[in-house]
Design a protein that fits this description.
5 helices; about 140 residues; about 80% helix; mainly alpha
Length: about 140
């Protein structure tokens, strides 16, 4: 049996309180287990206070996993936004080249100018709508 110190008892009490907050212990169970943990002399006594509770490392793994999932979700979202704006740039260049070509070949006309402006405006609004952060309304 390995002897423990005040720091170990305090850490055990904090972990028991965390289990209580998560709903794994009732108030009576918390009181009993805190009494056991704070009066423990060895690590075996401390382990008895945590006998049927999940280990603390599981919570740390779950927290790390949710952080990684959030980071991956943000990276996928960023890649999607970058790809959409790259496509918009390509479409804008194609529209501009097409407009300049029609102006050179057949001269300036209101129809060409209106078609170019309408297509460019529609593509711009579409990309802005698709890449807008979720939950943002204007």
């Amino acid at each position: 049996m390995t002897r423990i110190g005040d720091h170990d008892r305090d850490r055990a009490a904090a972990l028991l309180k965390r289990h209580f907050v998560r709903g794994r212990l009732s108030v009576e169970e918390l009181g009993e287990r805190l009494e056991l943990a704070l009066s423990a002399r060895g690590d075996r006594d401390l382990r008895a206070a945590f006998a049927d509770l999940p280990p603390a490392w599981r919570e740390q793994v779950a927290a790390a996993r949710s952080g990684v999932d959030g980071t991956l979700r943000a990276a996928r979202r960023l890649a999607f936004v970058v790809a959409m704006w790259a496509l918009w740039w390509a479409a804008s260049i194609v529209l501009l080249v097409g407009f300049v070509t029609t102006v050179v070949v057949s001269g300036v006309s209101w129809t060409n100018a209106a078609a170019f402006a309408a297509l460019w405006l529609v593509s711009t609004v579409a990309v802005k709508t698709v890449t807008r952060p979720r939950g943002v309304r204007r």
